[in-house]
Each structure stands twice: as C-alpha cells, then as structure tokens.
C-alpha cells in the first residue's frame, strides 16, 4: 500500500501487489500436486520375502507352526481368525500367549529345540491385525526367530 497525493490532500489508495499472491498460488499448486504421492496404500507393507518360500516353493519344515485361518463373518463374529498352534486350536490371543510361553520354557530345557523358529502361517484373507496380534504374542513369549510363510 502506498498513499497517493491528489491536490494537496492525502488520500490512501490501496495497490494490490500481485507478485506475492502469484508466489503463494504456485506454492499451493505444487503442494497439492505432490501431496497424494506421500500417502501410503491401505494394508500395504513393503517386504522382501525369500525366494524359496513363495508360491510353488518349499515351506519351512522345522520349527513350531502357528496357523491363522480366516473365519467367515457371521452375525456374532466379525472377521475373526481361528488360531491353530502345532495342530491344536487355541481359544484366543491371551491363551496363545500363555501356550507360547509354556512352549518357550520347555524348549529352553532341550538344546535341540532352543534354536527352532516359530513359523506364522496366515491365510491369504486373514486381516492384518490378527497377524500382528500373533506376532506380538510370540515376541512377548520370548521367541527371537519368528518367520512368516507366504499364503498360497
């Protein structure tokens, strides 16, 4: 804003400077053009899986196996997973945690079993939260070598 003088009288006349406004507009345009590229895809976790464990490859044969099976949604169960540890069903993740702790204690006494991995094998349609809950239970139980199989 610069005041202008007309006939000895002081009048304020507003001048709009366009350069700062154009700079701001261009900055906003660039910001909103780049913003969608920062967004991560839902449910996408980048991983580097071993080539021998993919579809058609051989799954690990040694270790304890923890299977997570998808349960079809019924009115009383909302996208739940059935937990099976070493071929035996487990009621929930609290019971799984206790069962894993017990297995870990028993394995620590036997040298041949102490280095065995825990293999988490989820079905392809099991929700991510179930895999995370199983992983958390395994870490809490003291397992250090936790592996995942690729769903077929």
Description:
The chain is of the alpha/beta class. It is 32% helix and 19% strand. A hairpin with a 2-residue loop joins strand 1 (4-6) and strand 2 (9-11). Helix 2 (93-109) packs parallel to helix 3. It is elongated and about 100 Å long. Residues 51-57 have low confidence and may be disordered.
Enumerate the spans where pLDDT stays under 50 for 5 or more consecutive residues: 51-57
Give me the count of strands: 7
- Which outline best applies? elongated
Distance separating the two termini: 70 Å
Q: How helical, in percent, are the residues?
A: 25-40%
Do you know the CATH architecture of the largest domain? 2-Layer Sandwich
CATH C-level of the largest domain: Alpha Beta
Hey, roughly how much beta strand do the residues contain? 15-25%
Structural class: alpha/beta
Largest sheet: 5 strands, mixed
SSE run: EEHEEEHEHE
Topology:
Blueprint: E1 4-6, E2 9-11, H1 18-34, E3 64-70, E4 81-85, E5 88-90, H2 93-109, E6 118-122, H3 128-141, E7 146-148
Parallel strand pairs: 3-6, 6-7
Antiparallel strand pairs: 1-2, 3-4, 4-5
Helix pairs in contact: 2-3
Quick rundown:
The chain is α/β, with parallel strands linked by helices and 152 residues long. It has helices at residues 18-34, 93-109, 128-141, and strands spanning 4-6, 9-11, 64-70, 81-85, 88-90, 118-122, 146-148.
Write a concise keyword list for the protein shown above:
152 residues; alpha/beta; two-stranded antiparallel ribbon; 19% strand; elongated
């Amino acid at each position: 804003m610069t005041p202008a003088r007309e006939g000895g009288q002081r009048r304020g006349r507003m001048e709009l400077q366009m350069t700062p406004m154009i700079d701001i507009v261009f900055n906003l345009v660039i910001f909103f053009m780049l913003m969608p590229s920062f967004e991560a895809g839902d449910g996408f976790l980048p991983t580097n899986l071993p080539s021998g464990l993919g579809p058609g490859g051989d799954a690990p044969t040694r270790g304890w196996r923890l299977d997570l099976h998808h349960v079809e949604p019924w009115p009383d169960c909302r996208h739940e997973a059935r937990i099976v540890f070493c071929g035996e069903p487990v009621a929930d993740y609290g019971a799984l945690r206790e069962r894993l702790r017990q297995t870990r204690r028993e394995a620590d006494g036997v040298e041949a079993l102490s280095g065995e991995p825990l293999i988490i094998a989820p079905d392809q349609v099991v929700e991510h939260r179930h895999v995370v809950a199983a992983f958390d239970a395994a870490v809490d139980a003291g397992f250090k070598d936790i592996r995942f199989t690729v769903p077929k």
